[in-house]
Amino acid sequence: MGTLFAEQNDPRQNWGLTPLGPDVPKPQWKPAPIKQPLKTRLKSLSASGESLLLVKDQKPCAIVALPQNANSSSRAAAEVLQHAFAKMSGVTLPIVAEDKVQVQKSTFVADGQSYEYLLSIGNTQLAKAAGVSADDLIMDGYRLQTKGKVLFLVGQDKEPFSDAAGRPLPESGSTITRFLQANGTRNGAYALLERRFGCRWLWPEEAGGTVFPKTATLMLKPIHESDEPAMAQRFLRNYYPEKGINAYGRRQQQTVLPMLHRSYSSLLQKAKNSGAWFEAMKLGTSVEYNVGHSYSGYWKQYGETHPEYFALQADGTRNQTAHGGSADRVHLDVTNPDLIAHVAAEAIAKFDADPTLTSFSIAPNDGSYPSFCLCEVCRRLDPPNGDPVSFSIVGKDGKAKRIDYVSLTDRYVTFYDKIADIVVKKHPDKLLGAYAYSTYSSPPLYAKLAPNVFISYVGLSYFNDEQRQHDLESWDAWSQMADKLQLRPNALLGAYGIPAVFAHKLGDDIKHAYQTGMIGSDFDSLTHDWASRGLNYYVLAKLLWDPSQDVDALIADYCNTGFGPASPSIQKYFSLLETLTDEVAKSAGENARDEDAINPNSVRGVLSLIAKTYTPEKLTQLQTLLDDAKKQAADNPAALRRVQFLEQGIRYANAETAWARAYFAPSSPEKKQRVLDALDARLAVLTDLYDNHFYAQSIFMPLYREASMFKEYGWDPNKRNEQRRVAAGL
Ligand SMILES: [Zn+2]
Q: Residue 302 C-alpha to ligand 1 middle, in angstroms?
């Protein structure tokens, strides 16, 4: 047992700033090996049977049958089909439990009505009798098969955990709202509508983003196909509240909404269907890859009984809360064998208690103070040649200072490996989750990672080519150490929702990551900037299901199905936007490093690049392309409405860049007034976007992230509103 009162030469007590690890060279970058091929799992077999007439001359010819105790995925599938067919044809097909259907001669009778065809959804007795099942498919997979006058839709489903009111419960131990479930049957319904009826979910239906081709007759040709997702975890965090449950961005939203004099409950109401698009795109997760910062309770629990578990600080103690350290962000003495045994025992106990649990997080906490352990035993693992990092220490004088050190990855990988070595003996098929992030994001130089540890890699940016290249190389190196990787980018948060297209780069990265070992994704976060970013979201979601798909084909399909006659102009519009996005990414360097823009210098860096690149002339060019598109779509109201939806992105970009240009203009006597006027004008646009174009553009990132910039000018949105009201005599 370690002790705080050791003799002088105890290396555990020997605090220092010199890395003492092996002097190993930095390995040359090598391309990551291909671990899984880019190959679709969609299987189309030759289909028998006749064509099924669902609707003829605005009369229903088919009935939808569910098993008697249908699960939520089957019920949702039936409703999705009923809704889409009604939107397309104006006819609502009835949904009934299968025991209410009688087969008389060759028709199906329910409620005294007879129908020629039947859609059997889920594991009905009929499907069993016909030998149609999804048993051979993985979670979330589905099968569509016609036989005689029946379409069978079956899928691999897993019900979400629910509370007493039937609301899904978020994953255990996760700080984000993520419901563990599988919806193969529901996925099959969306696939049928997309592949056979031309329906699309380009953006949320409430904002006109769903394509339902109009037709008086609905017919389904014989079909026999199955499909499965490439990965069990296809997760994009939903920034908005979903199903009445507070989602990821709550703190930011509650800070920003008072600036518009809007309440958080107004957001709960507006966003109540914000999860629907995610369902339509077959996103979700059927496995729990636990990789949270996992030692937040340790100080409270073991601070007194096991001080030796904790990182040695510069003041010679292991006290994690002295000098303003945060009790839930403690760091550990990760070479302490007792600690390693303790964490391994915790993992084993968890796996013993819950056989369904697939993984347990052993990832360190984030945060830069209290400091990481700088005892001699830990430092013996840190190679002096490692990438530079910095973090904070507080010495005996109580003063904080930032120190330069080397990457801590090797010591952490050693820690993971030692825990994994113990756990694997009891639970050989379970996984341990760890982050590649912060001071331990660079790949290790010499330490070897156990095969039962998966790494969640935080990286990738689409507004900074240099960073993207660096991150891709790190990914490749990690891919050579870790069997399994999760991709956890902050990339969708970049540049505050300014209109941008990075679908090709994103597509390349997803394909590459998948081939080199990606087992799941967790993107932070889809911020609902649909007018400005919707194409990226769409391509991303499609590729997470099947990364073998061609990005150009997906973009062309998005434009053709969504914009009809205006497609050529819209394709030019996206192409010009992609050029602008690339220009920003090319010129961004150190000044605009953090794509998630937590660093205020980075916020200014990115914004100044945007102001320089998205000039009034470029924005006019973009608007001209949309004007052309509006003319071309004049006779197609749905397409026209979608072009007008995209226009909201340009409107936002004009307001945002006008304020940025005022801010970055050289000093002058008029500057302050110009900045304040631009901020007022932007606030008016943002308020209108929130009230009247909710899904076109999210207002939260610019108002939250740029707060320190407008505070420089003493701009207080609440006071400005008040002043305007007084000026207007209200
Ligand atoms: Zn140590």
A: 16
- The per-residue pLDDT for range 262-300, each reduced to its tens digit, is 999 999 999 999 999 999 999 999 988 888 778 888 999
| Cα separation, 466 vs 589, whole angstroms | 7
Specify if 176 maps to a domain: yes
* Residue 51 placed within a domain: yes
How many A from CA of 1 to the centre of ligand 1?
14
Q: Kindly state the tokens that stand for 487.
A: 């991709």
Cα 333 to averaged position of ligand 1 atoms, centre (Å): 4
- DSSP reduced 3-state for 592: helix
**Domains: count for the chain:** 2
pLDDT band at 2 (very low <50, low <70, confident <90, very high): very low
| The domain boundary residue, chosen from 204, 228, 252 | 228
Q: Distance from the CA of 680 to the center of ligand 1, in angstroms?
A: 53
- Global pTM reads 0.92
Question: DSSP labels for 44-55?
Answer: E----SPPEEEE
Q: How far is CA 558 from the centre of its chain?
A: 21
Confidence grade of residue 593 (pLDDT, cut at 50, 70, 90): low
How many whole angstroms from 387 Cα to the centroid of ligand 1? Answer: 20
Ligand 1 midpoint to CA 412 (Å): 11
Range(s) of the domain holding residue 63: 43-228
CA of 484 to the centre of ligand 1 (A): 28
49: in domain: yes
Q: What spacing in Å lies between the alpha carbon of 314 and ligand 1's midpoint?
A: 12
Among 166, 201, 228, the domain-final residue is: 228
Distance 489 CA to ligand 1 centre (A): 30
Gyration radius of the chain over CA positions: 28
More confident residue, 376 or 368: 376
Q: Which amino acid is at 491?
A: A
Residue 633's pLDDT is what?
98
Give residue-wise pLDDT tens across range 53-84: 999 998 999 999 999 999 999 999 999 999 99
